[in-house]
Amino acid sequence: MSRGQQKSRGITLVELMIAMLLGTIVTLIAIEMMVNSARVATLQDGLAEVNENGKFVLGFLRREFQLAGFSGAMHQEGIDPIDWRQTFDDGGPFDVITLRRKMFASDDYDCLGDAAYSGGADQIILSKYYVDRMPGQASVFELRCELMIEGATSAKSVKRTALIGGVESFQVQFGVVERGRELESWSPQYYLMANQIDPDRFRVVTVRFGLLLHNTQGYPLRHRLLAPEPIELLEQVYDEKSLDIDVGDGRLRRTFETTVELKNVVRDVSI
């Protein structure tokens, strides 16, 4: 065999197999990196969604609760801030609360500030907050605001707005003092659930509420948790034995809680 023929000889079978093995290893590493990157992105998106929804709804409800009972009269006691006919605790994960305040002729917006009413005489406006199933979603619920004029019978007077999705629990407690007792501070005597309150006996001075939220797209944790940590929300505890919430399903979850003083309760009068 000539020297030129020896130089033009191709690779051997062993060399080919080694090259294929190295190529496969590099490809597997690249795929693993892409999968991990997608997994991290899903996790970050889920965390961002939960945190943004929680911060938004805390701020929104805080402002709405502070307006509750507003009558427009300076240095005078406001109207009853709670509509007890549409406020209740059914013992499950979703409480319902309905706030009352005076509406003025220029107050013509829905829960998120979009045009809703054309104005009119001073009336009482009700803001009902409740949880219902998201459209097209079998297992995802959303917090809704339902705005209506007190006493109105027309369906057109009701404006419903979805606030956030991924709500697994909405709990409300009321800080109360007994009527006839002088209100010296915003510290309530008790915290009670809606179905424990007799409006003729108690006056609400603070509202404590909390939400348990989860991400709405996918399951970032990829697998079921064998021993999930219990989740506490106000006086409710959700664990692997809970019937209402599957805390080990791989979704991201976080609780949000706050307490709001009802500013329209006058402090220096007997209530």
Your description of this structure?
The structure is a single chain. The chain is an alpha+beta fold and 271 residues long. The protein is elongated. The model has no long low-confidence stretch (mean pLDDT 80). The protein starts with a helix and ends in a 10-residue tail after the last strand. It is built from two helices and ten strands, in the order ααββββββββββ. It has a four-stranded antiparallel sheet, covered by helices on one side. Strands 6-5-7-10 form a four-stranded antiparallel sheet, covered by helices on one side. Strands 8-9 form a two-stranded antiparallel sheet.
Q: How many helix segments?
A: 2
Number of strands: 10
Gross morphology is: elongated
Low-confidence stretches: none
Strand order of the largest sheet: 1-2-3-4
Which terms summarize this structure?
single chain, alpha+beta, 4-stranded antiparallel sheet, 2 helices, elongated
What does the secondary structure layout of this molecule look like, with pairings?
Layout: H1 3-7, H2 13-67, E1 97-103, E2 123-133, E3 141-149, E4 159-165, E5 167-178, E6 190-192, E7 202-214, E8 231-233, E9 236-238, E10 253-261
